[in-house]
Write a structure and sequence with these properties.
about 55 residues; about 75% helix; mainly alpha; single chain
Length: about 55
């Protein structure tokens, strides 16, 4: 389960890196921020992040 959590977050970051121009980058940054926040909340709620700390 933890590997899935890390993989999901890496996919979000890859989306951000694949931005082609500044406008796309800014849009992807906002989307990525929301996705990462949701993912971190999910990890905390499900105890996945406890393994990291």
């Amino acid at each position: 389960m933890f590997k899935w959590f890390i993989k999901k977050n890496l996919m979000i970051i890859r989306e951000l890196i694949s931005s082609h121009n500044e406008q796309t980058l800014l849009l992807n940054m906002e989307k990525s921020k929301e996705k990462l926040q949701e993912s971190i909340l999910w990890g905390v709620e499900n105890g996945e992040l406890l393994m990291v700390f």
